[in-house]
Design goal:
232 residues; mainly alpha; 11 helices
């Protein structure tokens, strides 16, 4: 039986919905089985019955939110590659295909925009080393497809460099999603209240600049390598 699958109604769904809201607000490690079952108005044994363990419930929550994002990423990349008919896809369009699914899934979720983004951000920030096998396989496909597309969009940039730059981009994306409340607090309101579309546009510009670094003037990135020292 696939314990990560969640039906559209019933006790299993109630547990997942209770868990996801608590995980988003408080983090994965801070939430106990008792917290979840209390919020769901169910007994503690129900978690083991439906998911095998607390870890099984965490895996179900992660899979429920991340799988649609990854599926849409591949679908969008397929579509733009067909449109460009084998030519290099503009970098911003590749980034759009990678990031836009977050916005799509926010709008489909029963969670608020704030909680959805915090939950997905926490999933990678706190649970990245404990991903279910199904998600690991998904990300292998996503990584392979997007690195191949970026290699065409960024000619002259080695695959190893693309992998690291995308790693930095992904880290920035999930940090921004999970920690927006912190930014609002420390900026004392100076960060404003941007819509998710505004944040997406800002992030795409930021990510594109980082990915292009060193290529605008035709520099040989592979020959230069990473900067070893910084003068402050």
């Amino acid at each position: 039986m696939d314990r990560t699958s969640v039906p559209e109604s019933g006790a299993k769904l109630k547990l997942v919905e209770a868990a996801e809201a608590l995980f988003a607000e408080r983090g994965f490690e801070a939430v106990s089985v008792r917290d979840i079952t209390k919020k769901a108005a169910m007994n503690i044994a129900s978690v083991n019955y439906h998911f095998g363990s607390r870890d099984g419930l965490v895996a179900a929550v992660m899979t429920r939110y991340v799988t649609p994002i990854n599926e849409e990423r591949i679908a969008r990349l397929d579509a733009i590659e067909r449109r460009w008919a084998g030519k290099a896809v503009p970098l911003e369009e590749v980034l759009e295909a990678f990031v836009r699914p977050m916005v799509t899934q926010v709008r489909r979720s029963e969670l608020s925009e704030r909680l959805f983004l915090k939950l997905v951000g926490r999933t990678f920030g706190e649970q990245g080393n404990a991903m279910p096998p199904v998600l690991i396989e998904q990300f292998k496909v996503v990584c392979s497809r997007f690195v191949k597309a970026l290699s065409k969009s960024l000619p002259g940039l080695p695959a190893e460099e693309i992998l690291w730059r995308m790693h930095f981009v992904v880290g920035a994306m999930y940090h921004a999603m999970a920690q927006e409340d912190v930014l609002q607090m420390i900026s004392q309101g100076a960060a404003g209240s941007p819509t998710i579309e505004t944040t997406l546009a800002r992030f795409t510009r930021f990510a594109a600049a980082g990915l292009r670094n060193g290529l605008e003037t035709g520099d040989a990135v592979v020959a230069k390598g990473p900067q070893a020292t910084f003068d402050f």
